[in-house]
Amino acid sequence: MTNYNLDLHRQAANTIRGLAMDAVQKAGEGHPGMPMGMADVAVVLWTQFLRHNPDDPQWPDRDRFVLSAGHGSMLIYSLLHLSGYDLPLEELKQFRQWGSKTPGHPENFHTVGVETTTGPLGQGITNAVGMALAERWLATRFNRLDHEIVNHHTYVIASDGDLMEGISQEASSLAAHLGLSKLIVLYDDNHITIDGDTELAFTEDRMARFAAYGWHTQQVDGHDPLAVKAAIEKAKAEGERPSIIACRTHIGYGSPNKQDTAGVHGSALGDEEIVLTKQALNWPTEPLFYIPDEARDFLHMDGRFQSEWEKLWESYLSVYPEDAAEFKKFLNGDFSINWDEVLPQFEAGKSLATRASSGQVLNAIAPHIPNLLGGSADLTGSNKTDLKGEKGLTKDDFSGRYIYFGVREHAMGGILNGMALHGGVRPYGGTFLVFSDYMRGSVRLAALMGVPIIYVFTHDSIGLGTDGPTHQPIEHVMSLRAMPNMTVIRPADAAETAVAWRLAIENLSGPTSLILTRQGVPTLDRTKYADAAGAAKGAYVLSDADDPQVLLLATGSEVQIALAAQAKLAEQNVAARVVSMPSWEIFAAQDAAYRESVLPRAITARVSIEAGVPLGWERYLGFEGIAIGLNRYGASAPYKAIYENLGLTPEAIVEAALSLLE
User: Fold this and answer.
1) Which CATH class is domain 339-522?
2) Which part of the chain has CATH 3.40.50.970?
3) What is the phi/psi pair of residue 432, to 5°?
4) What is the pTM of this model?
5) How far apart are alpha carbons 356 and 153 in whole angstroms?
6) Are the beta carbons of 51 and 287 closer than 8 angstroms?
7) Antiparallel, parallel or unpaired: β 196-197 and 192-193
8) N- or C-end of the chain: fewer Cβ atoms within 10 A?
9) What is the CATH T-level fold of the domain 6-304, as seen in this structure?
10) pLDDT per position as a tens digit, 462-519
11) Would you call 409 a catalytic residue per the annotation?
């Protein structure tokens, strides 16, 4: 420990402080205080512990670093630049500007070396739990006593705000329950938030709380490099529990007039204060963005850790060739599936909730996708997300493939993101659709980052019945459709559910939400109606008529209502086409000719029916169409009575269609 070069450490830490001050000042806005305060901790971590390779940022056994306090983004940008990533100094000078690689909060899809997109507080530390979970699961599956090819840590820098947010508390509880001992959180204990001193709202004993969860806890002076180094070494030696180190720091460290104030949290210091701060730090005031060679050399990382791992990998290839081939498949997601043979067939006419058919499909495909790993937020039996014959993960046994997330929807969403970002696993998670609100922040980030999460959202409408309006989602499907890069699929029956799962598995560019019923729906007779394969195009003509006069559009459980209305219209010599439209997003991606073949522009008499808010259906109905849906919350009653009393009936569709044809 005494061999650590404190002079070089100070050079590197002050370089980061200078870059943070200068970049925020040039941009005119930003958060300089946290990078200035945590520079000492970060330099110790990046020079003494973090195993990574700037020349191969996706090396699979690299340590993961998560800046959960994403507002302090100049900290990670400085570290990436100085350690050798492809992030030129010019990018730091363009902090927060259009087209730069240094946005206000770190974005993993935008800046090389950034592991996850942070900004909403609590998300980063929760993602890190998912990363640590994925690391341990893969290590359990592939490591051998003499070949530990998966053996890395996940490090987090978190703020007071991260620890206040509820999502982090849910995730931290689960992390301890699962014994994720390779998760190490460095808590920036600076006592300052935007409103002022944390005494305003945050006075509990934070370390006692984490100790109660079951974490290994330490407290150190965050400006004492040797103490920080010793604490991280102790955390790494802890083999049973995740670790948190409270690093007591001074926000805006070195600023004569703004250190330890909220004024340095989210605002530039100002030219005069920057000069005074640099003078106090014995740092050159000119040039701006000054980087001494010694600091760059101290933080620069070569590929030595990856080179050591590659020697181990070559031996693993030789000794365990089958496992090595499987490991590559896990990392690449390279699993070929003969869908026609794998997907189950469902008996026509049988009533089956799509949540139930989803469970059957999931269990049919799981053996063919061995890295499929997921669970439910304490609703396993309701969501039908369990994997038959697979154990749940426990602190002592990570060999199963099922995760009991507990009543923690918010954490589940963020953990799933971390699992996907880690790589090597394909995550899914289930809850009631109405509770997607709890995890909405994480779901939105999944769409923003383009990670392939599969959400199993069941109990999708007033069709869940007597639990009442608190549990009956009416606006949720439309709100999910409003998210860019989110694929929403609401299948009409068991056959469409099988297609939906295939689409979800094949969608690698973003998350997929499967919207599934609690109540039974009839399995359509595909000798009478169109093949469910049409669902793969988002919408298709399910039941046609000669020279249709009206189009009936429906999703999910309301497709059967549209079919009943079609029959009633036929009795009145009105020809109607029924279109099953499980996914707006997939349909919108089809070419114009296909969309026209399903929804001909010449047919302007259009009626939609969906057990949710009708907002948005005008996209497909035009000005003359009628959307039958819900502009009020549901009720507590048997579901058939709710449908009847709220007007989601064949008769309502018939009435609407006839009114359009008058």
Assistant:
1) alpha beta
2) 6-304, 339-522
3) -70, 145
4) 0.98
5) 38
6) no
7) antiparallel
8) C
9) Rossmann fold (3.40.50)
10) 999 999 999 999 999 999 999 999 999 999 999 999 999 999 999 999 999 999 999 9
11) yes
